[in-house]
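#structure-requests
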Amino acid sequence: MPNPAHILILYAPDKKMVNDLAQATAEGAQSVKRAEVSLQTPKRTTKADLVAADALIIGTPNWTGIKGSLKLYLDNTGDLWEEHVLAGKVGAAFTASDGRHSGTEFTLLTVLHWMLGNGMVIVGLPWTPVMARSGSYYGATAAGEITAEDLDQGRALGRRVAEYTVRLKK
């Protein structure tokens, strides 16, 4: 039997909506057999944690882009980029903002840009009618008050990342 697929959910816990999406994403990932999930904040995450993970899901509040402290943390992992140690790992993102038109997709794309620069394999969400009201195929989102649909998208994203990661580990 293969080793479990380790999914690291790295999130900036400044907004309740981000915390709730992180929990929902973890629930989705944990629903997949042979997936092992860790929820961590940048203050408690080392570069070794990133290297040890098979997949990385990053969550951030939307502050017209990625939260500054998370961006600084990621910027300080340039040596991992140079060493190609994150290449081939699965990556995904989620974000939450106070307003629907606050640049949530821009924030997701900023996180995904960092992942692509590291050679990661990106997993998003396939289109559903729910996304007409909430969400993005770039990753899970919440705007304003978090809804059951937002949490369902977080779970779907976590499940998809775990499924792909388990397949890649076989």
